[in-house]
Task: inverse folding
């Protein structure tokens, strides 16, 4: 057995090719069978956006308040921060508290938190948190 | 870890400044807002100092380019300062005028903080490119260089054209990034490592045993084509004129220097992994497929850039096509390679490229500074040929700056650009690329047509009856940037020796020796790790990094 990393020849990528063919075949077969086997009933109700839901009101192409995007951005900042904090905390507990590596580990996350703080101050100054 | 930190101080200074300007740029107090560019300037000075005292890259690059870091970062910080002078007043002009008129400051409409922060981010990415020793690092650094520039183009003016340019630039940039990332993935597949020096060792072993694997070769070629986007070389050059014209002149000057430098550094590192010695009798050549690709790219880039520049009436479009052509010139240096190890400067193509990046940065800032210092009554920037007619009489300082910097771009003998071009010519001849040198010569002659048209418009033509005359813009620092550039172009030739020595030292290239790669934990992890061991592996990798 060898890994992809050691392979020099294109032929080693045959499994990848088979995988691609399998994936494309699966998707294609599903489309084909639903086209052949699926029932077709055209009509007014069928053409609606939500066939069995609420009636659509107005158009989808309207302007949203810019604040939605700002909040989405702030959410991303804190979301990403949390994602990185979990693995960090998991590893930090397994390090020897007196060792150099644990100090560097701590400094790194402090630096990372500093960048988040900057993002927070930036958002504050931009008025993201003013809900008037 | 600490070794790596030692070469990263310039980036750290720039990053701290980035964080500060993001906040000070939108402070309600006018004095603090106005202080923002000064923070950038201080950080660039600090980065310059740190780069000057920085050790060579040492362990980074695994000794492939052991001396490149100090020169590259000093070059970036120095030209970065010139561009910073140019950038003043690009954004928030209307807003500041309203504040002067008594309206309250609205931070949500202000773009100053973002603009300078993105500028610093881009320079940070550029410096990180210079310190890259790993494909993943290289990719991230290249993207950190490019992503901020897309937004800078969009916010640089209030016109719709900037938005159009930014969208074009963004989508084509994403395409370019995807292409070279695909190339990187194939290189990793062929060599089993993302570390540049390990890749070099694997390629050297493969060369000794009958040639580089086809997979690795395809990966290298795809990576080169993708990076061609950054340097605006031929298959990926289409965006250049539209983007330069759509962006404000100061931002266009930045686009001409920053991504180009990043691209050439990246190409140097990528080509360094295969080396300029294919084992043929003469030696000193890249593997034939890569050399042929680069050869065609260089010849087409020069020719397309210069010929299309002839047809333009917009000065910015002329400069965009000339930027394409200059990329073609510099590719000649990359094809020539470092020559004989320990050979003189004039045989060393890499030194010529590194020196040319400096000269090109200075010249191009000078020309764009002239455009940025002129505007129409309605606030539009000067762009048309008519706008620079008779400039030597109406605005003597700007006019002569334009004449000097344009002549330097042409490679006129006593100026800085001449010295840069000589290095490319001689290294090409030393590498035996006679056909390419002939093409380079012909192209320099073609380029003379449009450069001399610019000079003639400024120096000989009369103002005549122009429908909308241009005025000097109120930002004095832009004029200063132009004058400083022109001064460097005129007089740096006298003091060029230290810079040539710097470029020569930086280009020191140590080819990899064939042999077994010593896999460390870091690379083996990919093949061994199981989900249960993941935590342990993170700690292990971390220890490996510290060691």
Result:
């Amino acid at each position: 057995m060898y890994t992809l990393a050691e392979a020099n020849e294109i032929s080693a990528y045959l499994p990848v090719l088979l995988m691609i063919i399998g994936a494309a075949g699966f998707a294609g077969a599903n489309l084909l069978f639903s086209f052949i086997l699926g029932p077709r009933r055209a009509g007014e109700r069928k053409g609606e956006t939500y066939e069995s839901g609420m009636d659509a009101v107005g158009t989808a192409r309207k302007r949203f308040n810019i604040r939605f995007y700002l909040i989405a951005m702030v959410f991303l900042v804190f979301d990403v921060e949390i994602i990185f904090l979990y693995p960090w905390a998991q590893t930090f507990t397994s390090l020897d508290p007196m060792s150099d590596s644990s100090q560097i580990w701590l400094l790194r996350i402090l630096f990372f938190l500093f960048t988040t703080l900057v993002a927070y101050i930036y958002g504050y100054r931009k008025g993201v948190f003013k809900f008037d | 870890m600490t070794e790596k930190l030692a070469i990263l101080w310039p980036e750290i200074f720039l990053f701290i400044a980035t964080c500060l300007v993001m906040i000070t740029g939108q402070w309600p107090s006018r004095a603090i807002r106005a202080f923002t560019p000064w923070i950038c300037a201080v950080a660039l000075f600090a980065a310059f100092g740190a780069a000057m005292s920085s050790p060579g890259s040492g362990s980074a690059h695994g000794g492939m380019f052991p001396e490149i870091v100090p020169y590259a970062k000093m070059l970036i910080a120095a030209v970065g300062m010139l561009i910073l002078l140019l950038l003043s007043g690009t954004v928030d002009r209307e807003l500041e005028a309203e504040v002067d008129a008594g309206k309250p400051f609205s931070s949500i409409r202000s773009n100053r903080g973002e603009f300078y922060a993105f500028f610093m981010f881009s320079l940070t990415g550029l410096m990180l490119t210079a310190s890259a020793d790993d494909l993943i690092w290289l990719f991230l650094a290249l993207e950190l260089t490019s992503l901020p520039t897309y937004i800078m183009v969009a916010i640089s003016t209030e016109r719709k054209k900037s938005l159009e340019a930014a969208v074009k630039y963004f989508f084509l940039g994403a395409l370019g990034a995807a292409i070279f990332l695909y190339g990187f993935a194939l290189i990793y597949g062929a060599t089993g490592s993302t570390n540049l020096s390990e890749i070099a060792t694997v390629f050297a072993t493969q060369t000794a045993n009958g040639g580089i694997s086809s997979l690795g070769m395809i990966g290298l070629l795809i990576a080169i084509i993708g990076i061609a986007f950054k340097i605006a070389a031929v298959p990926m050059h289409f965006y250049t004129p539209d983007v330069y014209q759509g962006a404000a002149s100061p931002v266009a000057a930045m686009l001409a220097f920053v991504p180009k430098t990043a691209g050439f550094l990246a190409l140097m590192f990528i080509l360094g992994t295969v080396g300029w010695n294919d084992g043929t009798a003469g030696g000193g050549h890249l593997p034939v497929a890569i050399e042929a690709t680069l050869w065609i790219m260089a010849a087409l880039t020069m020719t397309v850039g210069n010929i299309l520049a002839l047809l333009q009436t917009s000065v910015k479009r002329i400069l965009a096509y000339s930027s394409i052509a200059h990329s073609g010139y510099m590719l000649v240096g990359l094809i020539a390679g470092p020559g004989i190890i320990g050979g003189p400067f004039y045989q060393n193509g890499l030194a010529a490229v590194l020196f040319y990046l400096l000269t090109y940065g200075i010249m191009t800032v000078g020309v764009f500074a002239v455009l940025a210092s002129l505007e129409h009554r309605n606030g539009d920037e000067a762009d048309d040929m008519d706008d620079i007619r008779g400039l030597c009489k109406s605005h003597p300082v700007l006019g002569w700056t334009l004449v000097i910097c344009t002549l330097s771009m042409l490679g006129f003998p006593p100026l800085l650009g001449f010295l840069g071009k000589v290095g490319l010519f001689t290294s090409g001849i030393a590498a035996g690329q006679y056909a390419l040198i002939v093409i380079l010569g012909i192209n320099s002659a073609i380029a003379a047509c449009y450069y001399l048209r610019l000079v003639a418009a400024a120096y000989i033509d009369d103002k005549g009856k122009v429908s909308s005359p241009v005025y000097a813009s109120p930002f004095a620092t832009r004029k200063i940037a132009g004058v400083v550039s022109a001064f460097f172009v005129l007089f740096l030739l006298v003091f060029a020796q230290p810079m040539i020595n710097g470029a020569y030292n930086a280009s020191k290239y140590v080819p990899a020796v064939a042999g077994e790669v010593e896999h460390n934990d870091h690379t083996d992890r990919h093949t061994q790790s199981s989900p249960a061991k993941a935590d342990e592996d993170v700690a292990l990798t971390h220890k490996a990094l510290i060691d």
User: Anything to note?
Assistant: The mean pLDDT of chain A is 83. Chain A touches chain B at residues 3-10, 13, 66, 87, 90-91, 94-95, 100-101, 104-105, 114-115, 118, 121-122, 125-127 (CB under 8 Å). The radius of gyration of chain A is 26 Å.
